Amino acid sequence: MKSEKYTYFVTFIILFLIIPFFTQCDKENEHNPIPNVHVNINLDISSTLYSDLNIIGNHAYITGGYRGIVVYRMSNDEFVAYDRACPYDHEDPEARVDVEDNGLTLIDSTCMSRFLLLDGSVVEGPAKRSLKNYRTNFDGNNLFIYN
Predict the structure, then answer these.
(1) With left for phi above 0 and alpha for psi between -120 and 50, is residue 131 left, alpha or beta?
(2) If I label 123, which of 1, 97, 115, 146 is the partner at 20 to 30 A Cα–Cα?
(3) What kind and span of H or E run contains 50?
(4) Distance between CA 22 and CA 109 in Å, rounded?
(5) Residue 57: predicted pLDDT
(6) Where residue 22 falls among pLDDT bands split at 50, 70, 90?
(7) Helix (H) / strand (E) containing 31
(8) How many CB atoms lie within 10 A of CB 136?
(9) If we measure between CA atoms, which residue out of 40, 68, 18, 67 comes closest to residue 136?
(10) What are 84-124's pLDDT values in tens digits?
(11) Dist. CA 132–CA 86, nearest whole Å
């Protein structure tokens, strides 16, 4: 009888330790459906190519990431960068988010999901996850975008 209880106890402990590992993997895959691609970009914002980024509140589209990257200047020394792939229909090569005329939101014209430009969070539409963001570092001249 004791060995039977011991077996159940050991089985319970093993399952208790293993199940969270698998559910965590599932949560990570659900959280970020955009495929990981290497991003290591250096932008000289004094260049005429990126002159829009010299003004707070402006944005620029650049090549890189999974479906391109949108960069937004939040303040003198703070930038955000998001992949232009919508988390809802990221496998559709035509689906990309664009900054709307209001300058505050991005929209995927395919599924009509909207996202806040400040943090990439969902405002409306079928998307349930935020835009994939990339890290940024600004040294006063060069903006580094990376993952």
Answers:
(1) beta
(2) 146
(3) none
(4) 35
(5) 95
(6) very low
(7) helix 2-31
(8) 19
(9) 40
(10) 999 999 888 888 999 999 999 999 989 999 999 999 999 99
(11) 8
- Name the burial class of residue 30, with classes exposed (0-12), middle (13-18) and buried (19+) by CB atoms within 10 angstroms of its CB: exposed
* Tokens (6 digits) for 39: 């991003």
- What is the CATH architecture of 40-146? 3-layer Sandwich (2.102)
Q: Which amino acid is at 31?
A: H
Separation of alpha carbons 34 and 63, rounded Å: 16
- Rounded Cα gap, residues 98 and 60, in angstroms: 10
Look up residue 129 and give its amino acid.
R
Where residue 95 falls (left for φ over 0; alpha for ψ -120 to 50; beta otherwise) is beta
Cα separation, 91 vs 35, whole angstroms: 10
Q: Tell me the mean pLDDT in the region 137-144.
A: 95
Q: What global pTM score does this model have?
A: 0.77
